[in-house]
Amino acid sequence: MASLIVRNVGRLTTWHGPVVERAAVVIRDGVVEWTGADADLPAGLGDVPELDAGGAAVLPGFVDSHTHAVWAGSRREDFVGRVSGADYSPHGISSTVAATRAASYDELLALTTERLTEMRRHGTTTVEVKSGYGLTPGEEVQLLTVARQAGGLAQLDTTTTYLGAHVVPAGRDRADYVDEVVGSLPAAVDAGAHWCDVFCDDGAFSLDEARRILTSAREHGLGLRMHAEQLSHTGAAQLATELRCASADHLDHVTEDDARALAAADVVATLVPVVSLYSRSMRWSHARILRDAGCTLAIATDCNPGTAWCESMPYAMQLACLAMGLDVETTLRAATLGGAAALRRTDIGHLGVGAKGDLVLVSSDHESDVLGHLGTQAVIQTVVDGCPIGG
Ligand code: NIG
Ligand code: FE
Q1: How many angstroms is it from 302 CA to the middle of ligand 2?
Q2: Phi and psi (nearest 5°) for 248?
Q3: Total domains in the fold of the chain
Q4: Does 156 lie in the same domain as 224?
Q5: N or C end of the chain: which has fewer CB within 10 A?
Q6: Residue 163 in contact with ligand 1 by CB distance below 6 A
Q7: Which residues, listed in sequence order, are joined to residue 162 by a DSSP beta bridge?
Q8: Ligand 2 midpoint to CA 250 (Å)
Q9: Ligand with an atom nearest the CA of residue 93
């Protein structure tokens, strides 16, 4: 927790009132204390370090609410096959499970810390990290522990999700494995998990299996999230509304009825556009269906080796804007406030007084350039808890 005055901000977006030009932000002990015009900066702030933004636009830190950042090995063969015409299949997950099980704790910690640090360089200040490439109780707990430790080393606000129900591991009986996932929930809680997720889809888990796992997870005090309607329409979005999940993610095959139900149940709809590109599904229209139904939208990277090898929130946001057709403000809100809503947090994703002092200095004097300038580093500096990092 640090104190900091960010001065000479070209344009400040707080999500409370209009953008302020030539602005300043005062963070005390990691919390936003004041924002306004630089010329109106209050006197008597004491001996607080200053950061000169040099006219850069400032946004709330990005909230990446869906990642699978703990893995070892590579899926480059899947990638090469896919760009030669093969379809994405969740069966590829098993090769990442084998490589991840073969890696040591220290190797996984180094790989994950590197990925989370790269996320922070691209402006992510809060990240959700799922397990899901271990698929035994012991391995899954290890991945949750790695995620928490790596989050600390990368100086990110980190929350972890138990995804033992990613796929049924090779050679395992389905019913036995679902029992094992349910039986592992207390260990996941002990390992610090706040959430339970299920990949509910063809080739993964059925609606009944997902309902059983998530109902039990709630009894153990975990918040609920789902991979829903990614590869096919299964009814997973309606299950997310029935269970009042915090978010339903992917949603490529969502219907208008599903979208209205998600909105009414206050389930955040998390878009992961990098997956639509990287898996080559090229499905984009669900974003507008969800927006038009009044859903709260989040945008996340879904960083994983199979369908989204990408640590950059700006890249995900550019696709949300240019390919999915969301406007600039909707996109920026989804990557900040929307991610916060998906994680059921009110202290992040905005820069109102009392918010966490997490922000990004954009490498331009206008925030829309995060979306409009492709192939460049969109962020010059990230501040977490009032501590400037990078630069
Ligand atoms: O979010 N959908 C399930 N899980 C990941 C992909 C995992 C993988 O292919 O390794 C996803 O797309
Ligand atoms: Fe995912």
Answers
A1: 5
A2: -120, 130
A3: 2
A4: yes
A5: C
A6: no
A7: 196
A8: 8
A9: 1
